[in-house]
Amino acid sequence: MSAVLHLLLAVVLCLVAIPMLARAAWPARSPRTAVLLWQAIAVTLPLSVAGSLIAYGTAPHAGSRVDLLVAIAGDLASATPTRTVDAWHLLAVLGGTAIVVALPLAALLTWIPLARVRRRHRDLLDLVTSTDPAAPGAAILDHPVPVVYCVPGRRSRVVISTGALRQLDTHQVRAVLAHERAHATGRHHLVLLQFASLRRLLGTAGAQVGALLEMCADDHASRVAPRTALATALVQLSAPAPRGALGVGEHAVRERVTRLADPTAPVPLTARLLGLLTGITLIATPVSFAAYELSAWL
Questions:
Q1: What is the spatial distance between Cα 252 and Cα 210, in angstroms, rounded to a whole number?
Q2: Backbone angles phi, psi at 130, to 5 degrees
Q3: How much is the pTM?
Q4: What element of type H or E holds 114?
Q5: Residue 129's closest CA among 110, 149, 109?
């Protein structure tokens, strides 16, 4: 039962950490650390729930997990009451197994339609966009609405409209393009995928992570262009990005503009290292149990 209690403690810690992290003010000062903590919670919470159920369900059985599953399958196939484990332990094993199977399945079902939309969007962009020395490396979309966005994926595209090119100056164009390239190179769409598939479990965490990823891209853009240039560009680029794309002005624009115009000191390095250590500790709990369970299967 020690494994059950250990995993349940991890679940409780995650449930306590979620509202605390959601209400905290420091993530805007160090968004990368906050995103990593959210990812640690997103990994630890469902796996710890599944692990505690499996640990409880298999606790009465001292033999190999393969032998246990074979015996349970035989009991179920014979349509007789389960003799290997009682009903509660059987439900726990089935419930934990269902969670483990559902996690990648939910991610896959979320990713497939988005990948299809993005692929079609990239194919269409190849037909209707052009290039311009004013926006090197970007696809120029002939449209009067000022919009800049990234279509992520293996063949990512950074798109800027002619309306945006007319409305923004050189520094602003450079800043927003650097922002969108940060989304592409940082694979931010994969981070958002993790939270999209767990949105019911983690509530509004996905929206906060989206805003934090925008801040991470803002910080990257601020290293190649003035912060004021990006801030003023954000105010002018309020058009929503197409489905499956990451737009520069979609999340927490007012908060980000304030952050760019009046930057605060980042969280001290020691505090960030402590946050990363906390995330690693959280992830280590279900991972260590998974390693133990794998050895029990062999």
A1: 9
A2: -135, -175
A3: 0.85
A4: helix 87-128
A5: 149
